Amino acid sequence: MQKIQAGMAVELEVERKADFGWFLTDGSEDVLLHHNETNEGTELEIGDSVTVFIYHDKQARLTATMKIPDIQIDRYGWAEVVNVKRKLGVFVNIGLSKDILVSLDDLPNIDRLWPEVGDRLYVSLKTDRNDRLFGKLATEDVIQEIAEKAPLKGVRNTTVSGNVYRLLMVGSFFVSQEGYRCFIHESERKEEPRLGELVEGRVIDSKEDGTLNVSLIPFKQDLMGEDADVIFTYLMNRGGAMPYGDKTPPDEIQFHFGLSKGAFKRALGKLMKEDKIYQEDGWTYSSDRK
């Protein structure tokens, strides 16, 4: 029999029954299998062999469960973040009655890049010198082993989504729902996504090695719509009139709207084409003021 070790599934023998469950043994040490940790309808007898997963309960005692998680030591899977503790790290649910900690030592140094509740991390398990279980983030080598090779043709401008697993200064990496390894260059995003965050973008290139380059920046026509919404909201918050138009200097446009002069003019053109605004003497007005 395998040694009783936290983080692994082992086959043990039922040694004796107690009011609250069964004690299982490997011949040298035993561990409790609580009634709550058995599969529904299971009947055990002394001498039976049973496969269980070993972990620590909330009192830090070794305990067994027949509800064996996919994520184990040396076995990876996606786990949802269920709690964030800034002094400890983040806790993920792998299907046990106790959540597993991913230590702050393995998380980004910048707090805003930490995973949030609902994000997903690709993890396995590891133990420290005291045999305590922790979540272990997948390395790039692990991701490359599980990633599917994306086709070279037919994927450009298609939409892909997935959870971010790696953050670098030059960009972010995620695994798409199809299993493709995707890279977002820093120039192809408005802000850096969090570790574990679900992102969605469009494919801008397909590489020979089967990876995809992805942009989180919308097409120009989509950006124009966003910019037009920003300008029109600003205009209406001023009562339908603002002292900015085609002739406004670029630095003023950047200061008030965060847009380039070209993007500002394209957005104004869109709003005028939709008959939402008109310009007069260097001012822009909402059409309902005519």
Automatic annotation (TrEMBL):
One Pfam assignment: WHD_CvfB
Boundaries of every S1 motif domain copy: 5-67, 72-138, 155-217
Domain of life: Bacteria
Membrane-traversing stretches: none
A GO molecular function held by the record: nucleic acid binding
Family as reported in the entry's similarity comment: Belongs to the CvfB family.
UniProt-recorded name of the protein: S1 motif domain-containing protein
Native source species: Peribacillus muralis
Organism lineage: Bacteria, Bacillati, Bacillota, Bacilli, Bacillales
